[in-house]
């Protein structure tokens, strides 16, 4: 059975990409069991509620906890630049975990290595290469068939035979001019699935038409057709990624499962494409590949690639967790509001530090940015710097101003926060490939090593297209708290607005 399936190129490619497990669906179902029986918990016929073991969420590695709170989002002192008036609003956000630093080259390389090894394991199981079916799990411990998935416990060959060597060599190519052997970035595709709980929960999307409107004065139309949009992707016979947004009648819960395939290799050519008439070849060849830059923030990563990293990080985490994984929220990009709230620090300052100036009294700069016209080195750096070399803000976060700007999950509109709710504000739109390009703008925050002082303020908003890699844009992940217990309210230290 396996041998026949592997003869199909499209099926092989899909297996190589490894979908993100639908952990949430299974864990939600698991949450229905194991609770104390309601019939046995009462005392003398009284309603006393049911108990259960509380989940104490451990601090994720490399992340800090940002407690829930509120902020005056936007520029309080309006900037006269270009005569634009930026929207402001009081909003509240729930607590979340946030990466201490921007995702580094080293961390992103781990993602690429995982995808590379997943493809290699698939090919080692393929009869066309190694033919070792022990690299693929097709049955559970009881011998019942399961969806084929990789066996990560199976070690890669240390001394590969001829067929295994062919599988390994298939992941690389040789530059015909320089003779340099390189990883074939075109094959580094990651497939993942995200269930859209928000869309599935909307009343208009109920499978039972009678549940779509609670107004009993409105007659129910049992034949009403509800149209939904579903993102899907596949690899064609030519090895190309085909991404589509399908509009179709609602048929079942699987309509809210979205599939994505993303080539995850950073665009190292951004260093020469972003700066015309500039000699930046050294960064093109070294910034991502040279271990000397391992602690530098990864750049050349699109918004789509950043989301793929978040999905992989979630899947990678859940592999090592037990039943309590059902409480753990997935990694994601921060919303604009979350990012600004975290950057401002506990006292909601204009910059991530207390002083309104960008340097201390002895002349030391607080961030890596462009302090002067053409003088990038005035702050001690030319391009980006290692993460975490400047002091953290009061939330324990590094480089929330300068170094590299950061992707958020929020779409960019001129209305900004005015168009958002004041509770966990967010504007979310997953632009389809056929959508006008202007709908693919995503908010970018924090400013970068190439930006002037005004751009590194916590409230400054800018944008970039979701498929555009830049040498000055990176990202960091957040994760919603599994529970948001109340904290003692303390008098606010935030200065009153005039």
Number of strands: 17
Radius of gyration: 25 Å
| Strand-residue proportion | 15-25%
The coarse silhouette is globular
The total count of helices amounts to 11
* Ends distance: 73 Å
- Fraction in helix: 10-25%
Main sheet strand line-up: 15-14-13-16
Which sequence of SSEs, written as H and E, runs from N to C? HHHHEEEEHEEHEEEHEEEHHHHEEEEE
**Poorly predicted runs of 5 or more residues:** 1-36, 486-498
What average pLDDT do the residues reach? 87
Report on the biggest sheet: 4 strands, mixed
**Structural class by secondary-structure content:** alpha+beta
What does this structure look like?
The structure is a single chain. By secondary structure, this protein is α+β, with helices and mostly antiparallel strands. The chain is 19% helix and 18% strand. It contains 11 helices and 17 strands. It has helices at residues 2-6, 9-17, 23-30, 38-41, 105-125, 162-169, 197-201, 270-273, 281-286, 303-318, 336-344; strands at residues 63-66, 69-73, 89-93, 96-99, 136-139, 145-150, 172-174, 181-183, 189-195, 227-235, 241-249, 257-263, 405-411, 441-445, 461-465, 473-474, 478-480. The strands form 7 sheets. Strands 15-14-13-16 form a 4-stranded mixed β-sheet. A hairpin with a 5-residue loop joins strand 10 (227-235) and strand 11 (241-249). Helix 2 (9-17) packs antiparallel against helix 5. The longest helix is centred in the first third of the chain and has 21 residues, at 105-125. The chain is globular.
